[in-house]
Specification:
Blueprint: E1 3-7, H1 12-24, E2 29-34, E3 54-58, H2 64-73, E4 78-81, H3 88-93, H4 96-117, E5 125-131, H5 156-175, E6 179-184, E7 186-188, H6 197-206, E8 211-214, E9 220-225, H7 226-239, E10 245-248, E11 253-255, H8 256-273, H9 276-280, E12 296-299, H10 314-320, H11 328-341, H12 343-350, H13 353-362, H14 366-372
Parallel strand pairs: 1-2, 1-4, 2-3, 4-5, 5-6, 6-10, 7-9, 8-12
Antiparallel strand pairs: 9-11
The protein binds nicotinamide-adenine-dinucleotide (NAD) and 2'deoxy-thymidine-5'-diphospho-alpha-D-glucose.
2'deoxy-thymidine-5'-diphospho-alpha-D-glucose is lined by residues 86-88, 131-133, 185-186, 196-197, 200, 212-214, 219, 221, 256, 302, 309.
Length: 373
């Protein structure tokens, strides 16, 4: 039986990971530490938090005293560190909080783990969740990144994640802290905040708003279904070698414009199969027999927009026997179905944190602004 600290467990991937861990290791104890920023949502984990096997702590990873107290209260075997500012667009408009959370917050956690575990590192693990964005951008003909690719971050978000990776490595090298790192590609699935491409497009489609495609829509991402990511992390925690970095990718490279087209078609199919959807989402073009693709709109590009990401996940496959198994078509269908079935979850966000973000980013209220970009 292990005791895990999951930071950022009320966010998208952290909430999926906490659910995955509770399902697959019911005897373990989980403590979720989350500051509940705009991206954190207690609704995503409330069903898991029984107070005994899974406990929620509302707190900031940058608060060294609170983090140290938490390590004194619980004998953590593992830290799985998701907490971060995670949205590239936000890091373009307001980046200071990225340095604070992603760099300083990681540093605080490393110090707390080191001080709590220093008498013996036996059975301990600090696992840091990082991103493929630390590697920069690939040209069309370049091979996918391996773990040995050079760090070349281009956005303030990616730079802050790269800095946190280096801190984690430095604690392993200098102090012998037992760490592992995973650098993964774009995740998608249930509970993702609707500022990120896939949930944004689904919810805009369902509510009849434009689908804003940055630039020419030719930017390529490598999409990883979140449950595959959770399983990959579990395999690294179980069998990964200390001090090592593992890349995690979905193996599904696709230009944004094609991805959004596929999403529109999936939504169209669901409306054709289920007449009740037209009543629940009357503003979606599919509700009146029109194609959802009609909402696709090219808008001003993201400054410094990385052209292509692609991950080589061979190390994970060869060393740990793990490969992501969800096909893109299946993952997108499951994701669309989840957002169709869980509108109570996203409607609360839509009227609060999402609205504030659209105002900050686009300068006006959601509906008009996205249409007029
Ligand atoms: P998210 O933005 O959905 O969630 C982040 C969570 O961290 C939120 O619950 C938020 O409240 C919490 N948080 C933020 N600041 C905090 C602080 N100071 N103290 C405590 N909690 C705080 O992010 P996500 O998409 O779930 O990403 C999780 C991790 O995975 C991040 O480290 C991100 O860099 C990394 N990652 C994400 C993706 C992706 O596609 N989403 C891909 C690669 C790597
Ligand atoms: O690659 C891993 C990274 O993936 C993670 O580290 C980040 O936390 C995560 O946010 C994600 O970063 P991206 O910038 O790739 O994701 P985003 O969903 O913001 O955008 C995906 C692509 O879609 C990107 O090329 C920009 C484009 N895009 C995005 C939005 C929000 C659009 O064309 N229109 C949009 O409205």
């Amino acid at each position: 039986m292990s005791t895990l600290l999951i930071t950022g467990g009320a966010g998208f991937i952290g909430a999926n990971f906490a659910a995955y861990w509770r399902r697959s290791r019911p005897a373990d104890r989980v403590v979720i530490l989350d500051a509940l920023t705009y991206a954190g949502n207690f609704d995503s984990i409330s069903a898991l938090c029984d107070g005994e096997y899974c406990r929620f702590v509302h707190g900031d990873i940058c608060d060294a005293a609170a983090v140290q107290t938490l390590f004194q209260e619980h004998d953590f075997d593992m830290v799985v560190h998701f907490a971060a500012e995670s949205h590239v667009d936000r890091s373009i408009y307001a980046s200071q909080v990225f340095t604070r959370t992603n760099v300083q917050g990681t540093h605080v956690l490393l110090d707390a783990a080191l001080s709590a575990w220093k008498s013996s590192f036996e059975g301990r693990r600090f696992h840091h969740i990082s991103t493929d964005e630390v590697f920069g951008s690939l040209a069309p003909e370049e091979a996918p990144w391996t773990e040995l690719a050079r760090y070349d971050p281009t956005s303030p978000y990616a730079a802050s994640k790269a800095a946190s990776d280096f801190l984690v490595r430095s604690y392993a090298h200098t102090h012998g802290l037992p760490v592992t790192i995973t650098n993964c590609s774009n995740n998608y699935g249930p509970y993702q905040f609707p500022e990120k491409l896939i949930p944004l497009m689904i919810l805009n489609a369902l509510t009849g708003q434009k689908l804003p495609i940055y630039g020419d829509g030719g930017n390529i991402r490598d999409w990883l279904y979140v449950e595959d990511h959770c399983a990959a992390i579990a395999s690294v925690l179980d069998r990964g070698r200390q001090g090592e970095t593992y890349n995690v990718g979905g193996g599904h490279q696709i230009p944004n414009i094609e991805l959004v087209g596929q999403l529109c078609d999936t939504i169209g199919r669901r409306f054709a199969e289920d007449e009740g959807l037209a009543e629940r989402f009357p503003d979606c073009p599919a509700a009146s027999g029109r194609t959802t693709r009609s909402l696709m709109t090219f808008v001003r590009d993201r400054p410094g927009h990385d052209r292509r990401y692609a991950i080589c996940a061979d190390k994970l496959a060869h060393e740990l026997g793990f490969r992501a198994g969800t096909t893109l078509a299946d993952g997108l269908a499951r994701t669309v179905d989840w957002y169709l079935a869980n509108d109570a979850w996203w409607r609360r966000i839509h009227s609060g944190a999402y609205r504030e973000w659209v105002k900050l980013h686009y300068g006006t209220e959601p509906k008009r602004s996205l249409a007029s970009l």
